[in-house]
Amino acid sequence: MLTVWWQQGVASVAHRSNEIGSPHMITLYGFGTGFGLPEISPFVTKTEVQLKMAGLAYRKEKAMPPASPKGQLPYIVDEGESVADSTFIRAHIEGKYNFDFDAPFNLQQRAQAWAFERMIEHHVYWALVGARWVDDANFAKGPTHFFDGAPEHLREKLREDAQFRVAENYLLSGLGRHAPDEDVDLAMRSLFALSVQLGDKPYLMGDTPCGTDATAFGALAGILTPFFESPLRERTEQLANLAAYVDRLMLQYYPDFAWKSLQQAA
């Protein structure tokens, strides 16, 4: 990751094997499987894939955002220390376990990877939110069921309030201020940029996966899951190298999950 400590030369490209083999285990808190995905949240997916990349033992527990120190998922507990937010969890892994997700990139390549990550998390992600939460049909199919366990007399009010809050945040993100076809047009510019960056390479930055691949995979899988129908998904499917990229990384990092690839969905 592009950080001051990397520029000062204190990062190492290798992790400590004695740390990875230690008896303690990290606990990752996320939403769990759903929506045709091994993990509902793209941010939890990002952290889970990065834990796999780093070769760290972990167990996964279900949680809801209010349980997190920052009111959002994911968060981890590592030897009694709680770390929330996927970016800070990555920094924790890099610092404590001396694992460099971006080895062997130079400073310019690290800057490029960071820029793509910001584009995914602050632009592409909000297009995904719009498709899941603002589209009434998709909301009824997916996120509304988060509240199935609520008391019956409160259930519909909780659903309405949650959808309203997410729609408000979608508006504040900027994408929600546009007509539905316009916000997809804007999102596709970012997705096309990802497609161009990927090209015919196996990973975004070359022949080996980096931290940003975990971010891209989480968001793209969330868009391409056949569980939801949306213009965003339909248009993303036309970027064949991104669809194939998701299929490859799903097989690599979730080999036991029954992912329905684009070809199978067709």
Number of H- or I-type helical stretches: 12
Name the strands of the widest sheet in spatial order: 2-1-3-4
Please describe the biggest sheet, giving its number of strands, its sense, and whether it closes into a barrel.
4 strands, mixed
**Which structural category do the helix and sheet elements fall into?**
alpha+beta
| Overall average residue pLDDT | 90
Keywords:
Glutaredoxin, Glutathione S-transferase Yfyf (Class Pi), Chain A, domain 2, 4-stranded mixed beta sheet, about 270 residues, alpha+beta, 2 domains, about 5% strand
Report on this model:
This protein is an alpha+beta fold and 266 residues long. The chain folds into two domains: 4-97, Glutaredoxin (3-Layer(aba) Sandwich); 107-265, Up-down Bundle (Glutathione S-transferase Yfyf (Class Pi), Chain A, domain 2). It has twelve helices and four strands, in the order ααβαβββααααααααα. The protein has helices at residues 4-7, 17-20, 42-53, 86-97, 107-134, 136-141, 152-173, 180-198, 211-224, 231-237, 240-253, 262-265, and strands at residues 26-30, 58-62, 75-78, 81-84. Strands 2-1-3-4 form a four-stranded mixed sheet, with helices on one face. It is globular and about 55 Å long. The model is unreliable at 4-21 (pLDDT under 50).
